[in-house]
Amino acid sequence: xxxxxxxxxxxxxxxxxxxxxxxxxxxxxxxxxxxxxxxxxxxxxxxxxxxxxxxxxxxxxxxxxxxxxxxxxxxxxxxxxxxxxxxxxxxxxxxxxxxxxxxxxxxxxxxxxxxxxxxxxxxxxxxxxxxxxxxxxxxxxxxxxxxxxxxxxxxxxxxxxxxxxxxxxxxxxxxxxxxxxxxxxxxxxxxxxxxxxxxxxxxxxxxxxxxxxxxxxxxxxxxxxxxxxxxxxxxxxxxxxxxxxxxxxxxxx
Length: 253
Ligand code: FES
What we know:
By secondary structure, the protein is mainly beta. It has helices spanning 15-34, 178-181, and strands spanning 52-59, 86-96, 99-100, 106-113, 121-122, 136-138, 143-149, 188-189, 196-206, 213-221, 228-229, 233-236, 239-242.
């Protein structure tokens, strides 16, 4: 379970600690899969489950101090975020008696990017599910949200958004990263091997196993070769809701 644990050093996570966490996360996923329930939602929900699967995105707790930790278990509302704030959540989680069942659903990163950023681009001819967009715009409040699945397309660690405090990501990007070059914000960072993804640059990539095309945040640094898949979005009231384009987009783990 990636987001609940003891804070390892009282300040932030080191690369070594992060790698250990990723291994533990994979182990939990395997156990859950063997049990016939859901890990990353790549399997259907168990036949007999009295709870419900929720398309809304819910906050999950981060292991170190984070602004959203007090909202754990609450639905993510777009008005919660300041510009460039991000948070961890779960999409399509299973809920039993109103409580999220840990280990179920897709871990996601929700990021508010500048509404009017001219650098923002979505390079795709793919269509989102009906009623959804590959990002969410609120023109009245000038809010733009991007959500990605939080499993690295390299080796499945959990990339973070501005949560690593003791390691600076490299900035020799393979393609220009406007998130850093224009706004001084580090892109999404996977500390395991240094992959980074820019939430302002949504692009179309091909999944290496299934060959399906998907939309994701462009990889701008590190060993990964592909974008981090987005979760299409809409808002119900003020609550962020994810939409499934194709589950094969997320089969990286
Ligand atoms: S698992 Fe993310 S960079 Fe290797």
